[in-house]
Amino acid sequence: MVSETHGNIRIRRIEGVLTERHPVADSVPILFDSPHSGRTIPHDFVTDVSLAQLRTGEDAFVDELVSGCLEHGIGLVQAEFPRTYIDANRAVDDIDDDLLSEPWPGGASPTDKSARGMGLIRKHILRDVPLYAEPLSVNEVAARIEAYYQPYHEAVQASLDRLHGKHGRVWHVDWHSMKPFGNPMNVDDGQARPDFVVSDFEGETADPGLVEAVARWFGERGYSASINDPYKGAEMIRRYGAPGDGRHSIQVEINRRLYLDPDRMTKTDGFAHLKQHLDAFALWLVGYTQTG
Ligand SMILES: [Zn+2]
Description:
This protein is 29% helix and 21% strand. It is α/β, with parallel strands linked by helices and 292 residues long. Zinc ion binds next to loops.
């Protein structure tokens, strides 16, 4: 682990696991996080699928798209590991027993996400394309939880607690990107998706006014934005959102057609324009939390 300060930014990095950057002053009660943009392949990630297929599961460049937040006083936690190795945006026991060579100790609680092959440990990269030829041992999965999943959550939790302790309230935006159309592994198979989907678990993880204001902000800049449809949010906001306690967590999904060439996994010309808007969004959110 490396901790250092560059100018007014404090950086903490666990190589291959996560990087977090925080303005030293902690003067803004907002945290951004990007759990799915990591692309450092762990040494023990042995899979049958190609790197190109693996990368289709990645929310490519989302960390970079939102990193302008730092200039506006907002900290950023980002995963370095791929979400196809272990998914921080799932409950820790959302495990498909079919992936394992033995039962999960204490029993797993697979949700519909596991049923679609996208639980804590991903089963299929695309429909009918499994990641593993052989079942994983309980020890292998437990090691991924201990070395990757838990440190990521500890970093987010500690950052939110620190800001909440200082300001009495905290706002958290969990950033993702989505394919332009739903596919058979998703709840919205075949459907075209809007530019942004803003989610708060139907009002459970933030004051309802927040998702409405965020969707309106994007709408006013010419983007289409929906609320809680087709995504309601997942573990990253479920775990940290507690609006009654002044903890507001929302998920924002960005449509990849706005910035990504899906075949090459490279940025398109749209990237810079979108990043400018996301920089402006961060600045707007700072103002919102000061007056809201
Ligand atoms: Zn994601």
